[in-house]
Design goal:
106 residues, DUF6221, mainly alpha
């Protein structure tokens, strides 16, 4: 389970770094002044990273018997790296990134 969670956390770190770099480029004039849609996309990107991080933290113990999905009996066996359907779904946006394993698909 740790390998999948490490992968997800790394992808979130990459997303945040890309968003920070884009915001820095906008602020320093390295790109054209941001259009309303670009600003919204940037803000939404940060919010989505926060949401994914909070969900990952909330479901960090799923599959061990003490997570929220364990009480609902919606977990994968302990040897399954995903832990629960929620974490598996969090990985879907990253299926095209290096390191993603097809066995992690929900």
């Amino acid at each position: 389970m740790d390998r999948f969670v490490r992968f997800l956390r790394r992808q979130l770190d990459i997303d945040l770094e890309l968003l920070r770099q884009a915001r820095h480029d906008e602020e320093t004039g390295k790109t054209a002044p941001p259009a309303a849609a670009a600003v919204l996309t940037s803000l939404r990107g940060f919010r989505e990273c926060e949401l994914k991080t909070r969900l990952l933290t909330t479901h960090q113990h799923c599959g061990t018997g003490t997570g929220p999905c364990d009480t609902l009996k919606e977990t994968y066996p302990e040897q399954d790296e995903r832990g629960c359907p929620t974490k598996a779904l969090l990985g879907l946006p990253y299926t095209d990134r290096p390191g993603y394993q097809q066995r992690w698909r929900p």
